[in-house]
Amino acid sequence: MCTRKKPIDSYVAVQPLRSETEFCVLSTVLYTRGMVKKVTNEELARMIAKGFENTATKDDIKRLDGRMDTLDDRMDTLDGRMDHFEERMDRFEERMDRFDGRMDHMDARLGRIEADVAEIRGNLVYKDEFEDLMARVKYLEIKAGIDSGK
Fold first, then answer.
1. In whole angstroms, how far apart are CA 109 and each of 9, 27, 103?
2. CB neighbours of 150 closer than 8 A, spacing ≥ 6?
3. What are the φ/ψ torsions at residue 119 (nearest 5 degrees)?
4. What percent of the chain has pLDDT over 70?
């Protein structure tokens, strides 16, 4: 990347420059114009060899292929386990749906029982009230001379 040390205005140019990128290209061309270097075959071979120094060998590729095969096997095992897990989850969801249905049914039954209990309570006479009424009836029977048998 080109970094300018002087502002563009300090350079003399035939045409005004339109952008900093154009300036960088122009300055690079002017800077390298006289630097053409002859490269010998040995230097070219050395540069190519240096470029291949970090390239993987066939043994490296084979080792990586073996590791990839191991990873593929592990992924296949994991896929099988996930399929089994999904089947179990499907069965669980079906059971939960049935459970929800049963709970809805029981909730409806409980609501009906609560309504019945409320109706029964409306017609209920408590024990102490009943005993009080029985004592009054007995008193009235005695005063009226009625023999009830109790």
1. 92, 91, 10
2. 138
3. -65, -40
4. 74
Residue 89 lies in a domain: yes
Backbone angles phi, psi at 71, to 5 degrees: -65, -40
The better pLDDT of the pair 57, 20 is held by 57
Query: Is there a domain that residue 25 lies in?
Result: no
What CA–CA distances, in Å, run from 87 to 81, 84, 92, 95, 98?
A: 10, 5, 9, 12, 17
Q: Look up the domain containing 78 and give its range.
A: 60-144
Mean pLDDT of the chain: 83
Look up residue 41 and give its amino acid.
N
Domain presence at residue 126: yes
Q: Tell me if 21 is assigned to some domain.
A: no
- 16 or 87: which carries more pLDDT confidence? 87
Task: Over range 88-115, report the average pLDDT.
Answer: 96
Task: Give mean pLDDT, residues 110-123.
Answer: 92
Q: Number of structural domains, the chain? A: 1
State which amino acid sits at residue 3. Answer: T
